[in-house]
Amino acid sequence: MLCAAEASEMGPSAVTQFLALISLTVALDNGMLKTPPMGWMAWERFRCDVDCQDDPENCLGEDLFRDMADRLAEDGWKEVGYEYVIIDDCWMSMLRDEQGRLQPEPSRFPGGIAKLARYIHDRGLKLGIYADMGSHTCMGFPGTTLDKIEIDAQTFASWGVDYLKFDSCYSNPVEQMLGYPLMSKALNATGRPMAYSCSWPVYLGGLPPNVNYSLLGDICHLWRNYYDIQDSWDSVQGIIEWFSNNQDDLQPAAGPGRWNDPDMLIIGNFGLSVDQARSQMALWAIMAAPLIMSNDLRHLDNSARSILQNKMAIAINQDPMGIQGRRLLQAYDVFTGSTVKGLNATTEFTLSINPSGVVMWYIYPEQQSKKAETFEYQHKKASQFTLRKAEPEHHMVL
Fold first, then answer.
1. How does pLDDT run across 346-398, given as a tens digit for each residue?
2. Contact 296, 12 (CB under 8 A)
């Protein structure tokens, strides 16, 4: 075992070699999440509400998670693919038990997590839970330090957990470098298939060279790249911009069993209009992002329900090829034979279309611009031409 002091003195090359060695022994090859996961998570809507005395309907206790499981099972969510009920931060007691194991806060989870898992499994759903690879969770509850990784993985497996979100508050880069692969190995060793969601990249800035996505894909099923989503259109736009601006690094990392996670769907809360809600659903579908809702399924209006249960958007997201969409910045006018140039995410343009007329643009990736220029030249020079169908790819057109 490499001690923390030794690891802190390693250079970037040595760190990469060390992680490569770890990845050979802990590759998370359990066949899970061949398409992006779908489900519901508590955090964005319910945060760390632990006041079950004065706010029993919204506090983080077993009643809330049973309610959400009932809604997923009975209101058509399970049928379209939403299957995970995920507990986030603040579920724990402030003290581990006598055996050193994490335990739920008994006043809010009097039946325990194993009983809640059985309730969720009986409805054909799966249970997710939260832990933090540090001294404390982000909200100050007991963390999973390096010496507790194995026992916590075994505890989750014994409870029947199906999905672990592993955060990284109150830890340092060395602990993260050691802890995330070790948890992957510990989860494998339990023999229980568990999806593994890593928050590691966001704590390193989300981009290479600090983040090695090839190695990460051998360790985790999905990972948070960027800051937490908030209940506002500005937050959604900020996430979209960051993913688009860095798509050359991020898009190739995604695929079956390894997904970029731009965070939760906030549709049905307070911050988005109907059009903005449709935009988030469309963009998350195109980006092959996890479709993890954080809202109150007990009080969801019909417009939010119809957006979140849209079968075509879900089918695009769940495409088994697992290709993450890209933002496209150029276009070819099919009938005029000209290339539309200078487009970007903020371009405003006006088109005049005659009655019963049409404007038709062929949209293609920016890096194919030379091919498009050749195509335009051939179109002008030849009276007939054949346009070969491109390989399947999701396109994000803004």
1. 677 788 888 878 888 776 665 554 444 444 444 444 333 333 333 444 444 43
2. no
Whether residue 141 contacts residue 174, with contact meaning beta carbons closer than 8 Å, is answered with: no
Q: Determine whether 167 is an active site residue.
A: yes
Active site residue 228: yes
Terminal alpha carbon distance of the chain: 49
Nearest partner of 302 among 334, 274, 327, 325, judged by Cα: 274
Cα separation, 261 vs 248, in Å, equals 16
- pLDDT tens-digit readout, 8-26: 344 445 555 555 555 444 5
Do 277 and 347 touch, CB atoms closer than 8 A? no
Helices 274-286, 233-245: inter-axial angle, 10-degree rounding: 30
- Structural contact between residues 98 and 114, judged by C-beta atoms closer than 8 angstroms: no
Active-site choice (228, 231, 249, 319): 228
Q: Which of 88, 167, 261, 296 is catalytic?
A: 167
pLDDT for the residue numbered 337:
82
53-64 average pLDDT score: 97
